[in-house]
Amino acid sequence: MRSVRARAAIGATLVVAVALVAAGLAVLSVLRTNLIDQADLQAEVAAREVAGQLALDTAYADLDLDDEEDHPVQVTDEEGRVVFVSQGLRAISGTGSAGVSPVPSASVGATPSPGDDDDDGDGDDDDDDGGGSGRPGRGEVSSDDPDFSDGTATVDGRKADYRFAAVEATTSAGITLTVHAGAPLAAEQEAVNTVRGAMLTGLPLLLAVVAGVTWLVTRRALRPVEGIRREMAAITASEDLARRVPEPDSRDEIARLARTTNETLTVLEASVERQRRFVADASHELRSPIASLRTQLEVAEAHPELLDLPGAVADTVRLQVLAADLLLLARLDAGEKPGTARIEAGTLVREEVSQRTGDRIPVTVEVAEGAAYEVSGSRGQLVRVVGNLLDNAQRHAEGLVAVSVAADGRGVRVEVRDDGAGVPEDERERIFERFVRLDDARSRDDGGAGLGLAIARDVAARHGGTLTVHRAPEGGAVFRLWLPRAA
Question: Are 151 and 94 in contact (CB under 8 A)?
Answer without folding.
Answer: yes
